[in-house]
């Protein structure tokens, strides 16, 4: 029986790519007007996130230090003068980033569709609580999702460590089998939770191609969707009790979801 849905935040409920695209270009423009490579800055910034976030996840550096490393590399790759105070420069970058914060349109829709059905609706994100909760407040979802779980409240364990998911289930007072995790990163939000007994729903907004195999037992606990509006349909298939308690609503597209039988995509951002 499904009792809780945990949503990833970045690129699941919150449109991180859009905010990064705006911030990388507009911050670069502010320090180097007319820079010829400004159109390349969004992809570069996302690439540097993937390069530097793992060191923080592994406990090798602080959250602030991985930000400094990102900005230092960004300036180096763009041929920009290195700011004398990287923390101050990063704070400037955040002003641009926060100016473009927005939810995906289907985020509120799916929460509306699931609310009132007796399910706990929460968040499980690898980010830091102060920033992630600020995002949720800005996009109007903070009061509708509880709890908001981060590694800070899970013993410092990040997705995709098994301990992260197990502690999240324990925080909810549930068995892993009673929890569904939904997110854009196949490894962090679907394969990882499926390995501990949760059901993982991979939100594949951009039609990525799964590249490598997952063992059959794990893949049997993974579904893939292209939009959050497909989630109620997945839940009705997984749990007949949910189907009885929560009849189809306007956002559901039952039958559209697909199982991931041989899955694991190119690593995407946490
Ligand atoms: Mg994500």
UniProtKB/TrEMBL annotation:
This protein's name: Haloacid dehalogenase
Organism (species): Planotetraspora kaengkrachanensis
Entries under NCBIfam families matching the protein: HAD-SF-IA-v1 (TIGR01549)
Superkingdom of source: Bacteria
Lineage, opening ranks: Bacteria, Bacillati, Actinomycetota, Actinomycetes, Streptosporangiales
Alphabetical UniProt keywords: Hydrolase
Entry's Gene Ontology molecular function annotations: hydrolase activity
Keyword Hydrolase: yes
UniProt cross-references to Gene3D superfamilies, sorted A to Z: 1.20.120.1600, HAD superfamily/HAD-like
Region (Disordered), start-end ranges: 248-270
Pfam families attached to this UniProt entry: Hydrolase (PF00702)
Keyword Hydrolase listed: yes
């Amino acid at each position: 029986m499904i009792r809780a849905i945990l949503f990833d935040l970045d690129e699941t409920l919150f449109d991180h790519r859009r905010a990064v695209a705006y911030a990388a270009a507009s911050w670069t423009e502010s320090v180097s007007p007319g820079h010829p490579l400004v159109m390349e800055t969004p992809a570069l910034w996302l690439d540097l996130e993937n390069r530097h976030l793992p060191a923080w996840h592994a406990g090798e550096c602080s959250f602030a230090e991985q930000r400094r490393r990102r900005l230092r590399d960004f300036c180096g790759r763009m041929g920009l003068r290195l700011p004398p105070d990287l923390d101050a420069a990063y704070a400037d970058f955040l002003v641009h980033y926060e100016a473009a914060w927005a939810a995906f349109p289907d985020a509120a829709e799916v929460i509306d569709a699931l609310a009132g059905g007796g399910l706990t609706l929460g968040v499980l994100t690898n980010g830091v609580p102060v920033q992630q909760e600020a995002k949720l407040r800005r996009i109007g979802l903070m009061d509708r999702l509880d709890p908001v779980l981060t590694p800070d409240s899970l013993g410092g364990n990040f997705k995709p460590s098994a301990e992260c998911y197990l502690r999240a289930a324990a925080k909810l007072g549930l068995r892993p089998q009673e929890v569904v995790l939904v997110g854009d990163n196949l490894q962090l939000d679907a394969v990882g939770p499926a390995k501990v007994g949760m059901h993982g729903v991979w939100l594949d907004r951009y039609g990525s191609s799964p590249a490598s195999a997952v063992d059959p037992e794990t893949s049997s606990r993974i579904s893939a969707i292209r939009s959050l509006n497909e989630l109620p349909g997945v839940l009705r298939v997984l749990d007949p009790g949910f189907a009885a308690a929560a009849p189809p609503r306007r956002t559901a597209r039952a039958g559209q979801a697909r199982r991931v039988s041989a899955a694991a995509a190119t690593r995407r951002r946490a």
